[in-house]
Amino acid sequence: MIAVSHLSKTYGERRALDDVSFTVAQGEVVGFLGPNGAGKSTALRILAGFLPPTAGEVRLGGVDLFREARAARRLTGYVPEHTPLYPELPVRWYLDHMAALEGVPRGDRRRRVEEAMERCCLAEVAGTFIGKLSKGYRRRVGLAQALVHRPAVLLLDEPTDGLDPRQIVEARELIRELGRDHTVLVASHILAEVSLICRRAIIIQEGRIVAEDSLEHLGLSARPDQTLVRLEVRGPAAEVRSLLEGQTGVAEVRQETGEEPGVVRCLLVVEGRQDSLVREQVVRRVVEAGWEVRSLAAVVPDLEQAFLRLTGDGAA
Amino acid sequence: MSAVLRKELYIYFSTPLAYILAAAFLLGNGYLFSVAVLSGQPGILGLTFQDIAVLSLLVTPLLTMRLLAEEGARGTVELLLTTPVSEIGVVLGKFLACLALVGGLLALTVLYPLILLVFGGVDPGQVLGGYLGLFLLATVSVAVGVFVSSLTDSQVVAGVFSFVVLLLLWFLQPISLAVGPPVGAFLAALGLSTHLTALSQGLWTLSDTAFFLSMAAAFLFFAVLSLESRRWR
Ligand SMILES: Nc1ncnc2c1ncn2[C@@H]1O[C@H](COP(=O)(O)OP(=O)(O)OP(=O)(O)O)[C@@H](O)[C@H]1O
Ligand SMILES: [Mg+2]
Fold it and tell me: A277 at the B interface (CB within 8 A)?
């Protein structure tokens, strides 16, 4: 549904996107994951038809985004970063306006607007001015606006940014649900979010794609039979490492760059259900060898780690 | 285009700005009109149209300044330009909405020429010509405002700058006198007030009409280019 090939974008001197290629199949919900400044918004702006790229091609369902711009723009529903809206307009009026801009025939508009409001649970605020709505409702209006012309592709830029925890949960649920009828690309810098909404992620850093796979393959959602433990030990690096590698239950040891000389920092991949026993045993052995355990912590896989690993900086 | 037009009109009428400006505009015109009548000069009608024209140049930047600058500041321009609507459609929709409003403001002033018609025995042809001139002037001032508003995200900057441009265009005629020919003749030909003289006497001329319409078209064209360039910024 989305086919991007060799897309590059430079702002003056600055390279925001560098030879980016990926595809998203129909009906997929894909996360576009990257730290601040990675180029996520730039990519979505290009896909939405706002920015022209410096080089590259984009096809949306076979329609060339640049040669048939109008037709392609009708195929996409876009929620820009921070969800810009008109505070002076009432919700229903605004959605009708957006439907008209998107070329929905007059006769269908009313129905489409009601449909979009229903999907985004906006019925009770239909007549309220957008400026009077809470942030959560505004986000929903932004989503409804993107849906109102029934686009094949939804492009969402940080859709839960700035929401409170309950609204985040609701928004994620809504987006997951939208995945049933639309091809969705969600930009985010929050790994947990992407792992809840999407099956697959495209990871981008400094304008380049560093990985593109299902979340399990990327090792981003820890497999249920594995846990990650970070251990800091004061002792000789090589020996500590070989000791740790020798422990039963420890599948892998990845040494990380430590902040202090003399302290070894490792990430242990612990296999099996009895990870607590393995932890106890590891600590005992380290102490027996005469070294100091500085810290031991269970690790929830996060984006920074994934980046370190994927870009190869993690295995020092 | 019609969707943009409808939205702009809705926003104009849902905020107090249009009503406040209408009141101020009428008040200003009423004041100037009574001063003119009390002075008892001949050619009151011409003077009245001149006053209305100058006041309309003060008021239009306040109405046009938000048109595109606000879309830029809010980020809604990104939504607008990712719908299938063309830049021309956006610019024309905004232009026509604002022109309709300014036209409405001008229509409110019809009271003063009416008074003169009843009591002063002025020529109805002159009244018609005067209003045609004011409306043509409005097409230019709104077009200038739309263009300037597309250049910046700041409404204040847009308002002040279009005001300056309009005043400059208005005073080109007196300026041209100071400069002297041949440059002066050229400046005078571009002056807004130059082309209003005949119309405010009730003389319709094709050349003046064409002047206003082509000025307006030129600024709208610049506005379209400037809006397109937003994609490159
Ligand atoms: N209009 C612009 N002009 C110049 N540079 C820009 C512009 N927009 C973005 N950039 C630069 O391009 C790079 C990518 O920006 P982009 O907004 O796409 O990142 P992002 O991944 O969306 O980041 P964030 O998580 O902060 O939203 C950044 O370094 C940014 O400074
Ligand atoms: Mg961004």
Answer: no
